[in-house]
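Protein 1 of 2
SEQ + STRUCT:
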Amino acid sequence: MNDTTEHQKKAVILLSGGLDSATVVAMAKDQGYACYTMSFDYGQRHRAELNAAARVARDLGVVQHKVIGLNLDGMGGSALTDTSIDVPETLGEGIPVTYVPARNTVFLSLALGWAEVLEARDIFIGVNAVDYSGYPDCRPEFIEAFERLANLATKAGVEGNGFTIQAPLQNLSKAEIVKAGVALGVDYGLTVSCYQADDEGQACGKCDSCRLRAEGFTAAGVSDPTRYF
């Protein structure tokens, strides 16, 4: 760690390897934070997004990138952790089967622990409530509730050194997110958004995440670097 980093404010950022989280890292860096990124090997369908997260972390010059192993596939209940459940390729009603039970609650809890160790006071997450799949743990109400929990459940919070959960994409459309990232120099060719990407990170072009990503680039008038199989 150099002297400049030592005197910067620190942020822990959840980095999945997708478009949204890469944009959030660039935003935090632009705001002057020393960025510490965290990804999860949680039993998801593919490792392509973890490889993408590592690429994005290197490209954006984070201070440290940490990968935490979990076993959410041991619980199942989601098309992203149970290969016996097909990833839907058409729009349906209600919360889709790609929702992973309690995922953002678990991820934010671990980010909170690392933030307390680092003496960071800001945790960034790339949730969005505009162009998204309808997951309950992406809503503003959830983020607000978790911030209250963070400040009740930690030594730092009790002692008055509270945490802020930053969700800068919360009210942006996917097109606005793409435009913001391009302005900050994000290389979206490094990212993977597809729920069922292959080992090379190539996308299916059919799942909900692929659809939202493609629509975002089109609406933004930006060339889409996504590779499809």
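Protein 2 of 2
SEQ + STRUCT:
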Amino acid sequence: MTQNGFRAEEIDTSRPHPARIYDYLLGGKDNYEVDREAGNQIAFAAPEVRIGVRANRAFLQRAVRYVVGSGVRQILDIGTGLPTSPNVHEIAQEVAPDVRIAYVDNDPIVNTYANALLSRSGATSVVLADLRDPRAIVEHPEVRKVIDFDRPVALLLVAILHFLTDAEQPERIVATLRDALPAGSFLVLSHATGDFADRSEAQAVYNNATATLNLRSRAEVERFFDGFDLVEPGLAQVPFWRPDTPPPPKSREIGFYGAVARTSG
């Protein structure tokens, strides 16, 4: 048994995993041959995907700087994926060294890598938990060690909700998390879409992975922000959310929406 109660045989390396595919497409090394094969299939079907995942990562960095610059000193990053430097705590603590971060992911491999690579100071925690049970995340003792839900929190749901099916009620999950946030909190969210090109072939690659890819339209993604006030420029393709460098080539084809929003009232 591991410290989180998982046996080695319960860690599935026989099928592609979204976090490891993402790591491969970003140019990382924490992946297996099955993930690289899937990533190559996705890149063949959607040639802009590598540009897209890098643009999504850049959006995350800009959004973290924005929320920390707005005064938030606590970040709850759900679906963190494999650590990629600069990670959220590195970005945030460059702006304000006293920022505290709780990382959450449901993959034991991600959890193992994160525990090995991330700072284990009192300012960060790494939690093995599943977005499908948002109440368990909010109440998790390791989250509570770092996050005080009586003070503003930045909730990060970056490139994670598209791995939930409609039957898993992602809007309800986001609403449960929203209701746990105090006034002055933020939501940072990005989501894959097929609005700009037919990406059904790339989507189909995930049918053999440990989670399916569920592309959603602009209107469907906007519903995740119910109860929040969108920060300008609102929901946008990720390269065009407050860019600090010229957008990369083929940015108009990138199938990721992103936005930052603040709790209403």
